[in-house]
Amino acid sequence: MTHTTQRGSLRVVGLGPGADALLTDSVRSAIAGATDAFGYFPYVERLSGLGHLTLHGSDNREELGRARSALNLAAQGRKVLMLSSGDPGVFAMASAVFEVLDEAGPEELARWVAVDIDVQPGITAMLAAAARLGAPLGHDFCAINLSDNLKPAAVIERRIQLAAQADFAMAFYNPCSKSRPEGFERALRVLRQECEPQRLICFARNVSHADETLRVVQLQDVQAEMADMRTVVIVGNSQTRQVGRYVYTPRSYGVAGSR
Amino acid sequence: MTHTTQRGSLRVVGLGPGADALLTDSVRSAIAGATDAFGYFPYVERLSGLGHLTLHGSDNREELGRARSALNLAAQGRKVLMLSSGDPGVFAMASAVFEVLDEAGPEELARWVAVDIDVQPGITAMLAAAARLGAPLGHDFCAINLSDNLKPAAVIERRIQLAAQADFAMAFYNPCSKSRPEGFERALRVLRQECEPQRLICFARNVSHADETLRVVQLQDVQAEMADMRTVVIVGNSQTRQVGRYVYTPRSYGVAGSR
Q: Taking each helix axis from N to C terminus, what angle separates B153-165 and B183-194, rounded to the nearest 10 degrees?
């Protein structure tokens, strides 16, 4: 039985990088109160033990269709979750939902207007990785998605170049994938032009999972194969240092007392 | 009674932007298992209802002394928390702890070497703000601390200029403070040189608190007074748009079908 008189909702929630201990209470409550969950197959799989939820898994790159289906079901009065890993607002499903809303025709808009939409943040991969490494993002930094699926490679290269000139630490999402293996290699070429050979590059793979690996390498020793689709790469700024097993970027920059 | 034979710990934890619902389970567990909590007065105040904790509040700008005191207490076998708001790795206490470790003399190092140190991520202000606004950070973005307390104003201005040329969305932390009111004004001057007058600027104040306010303004209508020390400012990129009450940045950029 669908409750067509009840106002439906779409909660776009972030599941964090993997470990349940990194969920927020807010996201736990949203999961407990939902009737349906949409998302990329491995994310809905994380909720497969919860009997109260109808799971709607879909493939990667079907983000817009997934968002439309979720809005349609919410319009029928269901309490719908849209699952992202990490934070839904960082290279994840939140933008896709708003793109679909923005491109909706009058008929869809009339159907969706009553849906209560909200976004609930989660621990995004770069911040989970940074915490495990120490504090490599403790000064100004940027986040760049290296996939050229939705933007030209030239834009990515130019952004890395300008970010290096600004001396931002950088977090690279989607450094490469099976279908697009060359993203991280292209980024490396730019880094080698712009940065000193000793620049610290951190590879954090499957952060918070049982098989998590962390690796810190100087730029001159980096190999393209060190990053795969489950890796977040963090590039230090020119001041990033190691102390013991930790990597950190000092808070101060270019002033007396800073390094 | 202090347990000098037990290995002490220092957990650098993020409390999120304010609402308890944005705490992670991991941070809740760390709080439950701790004996002492250090931090800026308002952050330790958040834990004042917990009888099992000895609270050690200190003033702003006393980060290094606070980190040293916490390490010293942990070296005595205590379970010590270092509290940050948001995420400890983003313009917060994690870097200060590693700076103190890095600058330690042999005597301090000998005392601190047995302390189990870790960092536990939290929801940082810009991602909490982005979720409330929609998805303004859904494409490549950067985070810049506008305080010139620890870096020269010229470095900040240059970074904003390069970030605008890279067409990053930007999150500004500490846009101004009582002692340094001019940070956001300086940033505005650079934005007005580099960006079109219609650029969307979001002001998110006291996110997740009862008195949260959100405001979205075109660059041409921004006044410096719109930001204070409790505000995170999010600057859209050239593609950032509004749909209904939401602000979002499309995932695609500079390719057919993107705006």
A: 30
Say yes or no for a CB contact (<8 Å) between B89 and A166.
no
pLDDT per position as a tens digit, B182-225: 999 999 999 999 999 999 999 999 999 999 999 999 999 999 99
Residue B232 forms beta bridges with which residues? B204
Chain A residues with beta carbon closer than 8 angstroms to that of B90: 127, 137-138
Q: Which residue of A has its CA nearest to B255?
A: A151
Which DSSP helix (H) or strand (E) runs through B84?
Answer: strand B79-84
Question: Which residues does chain A have within 8 Å of residue B150's beta carbon, measured at their own beta carbons?
Answer: 251-253, 255, 258
Contact B98 A253 (CB under 8 A): no
pLDDT tens, position by position, A93-129: 999 999 999 999 999 999 999 999 999 999 999 999 9
Give the pLDDT score at B2: 47
> Would the CB atoms of B139 and A130 count as touching at under 8 Å?
no
Return the number of CB contacts < 8 Å for A and B. 233
Cβ-defined contact of A127 to B87 (cutoff 8 Å): yes
Report d(CA A146, CA A67) in Å as an integer.
23
- Token code pair at residue B125: 């202000």
What confidence tens digit (pLDDT) does each residue in B229-247 have? Answer: 999 999 999 999 999 999 9
- Residues in A closer than 8 angstroms to B26, CB to CB, are 19, 21-22
Residue ranges and CATH numbers for the domains of chain A are: 9-123 (3.40.1010.10), 126-248 (3.30.950.10)
Q: % helix / strand / coil in chain A, to the nearest 5?
A: 35, 25, 40
For B117, which DSSP code? E
* Tens of pLDDT, residues A211-226: 999 999 999 999 999 9
Spans in chain A with pLDDT lower than 50 = 1-4, 259
Asked if B86 and B122 touch (Cβ cutoff 8 Å), the reply is yes
- Residue A224 class from Cβ within 10 Å (0-12 exposed, 13-18 middle, 19+ buried)? middle
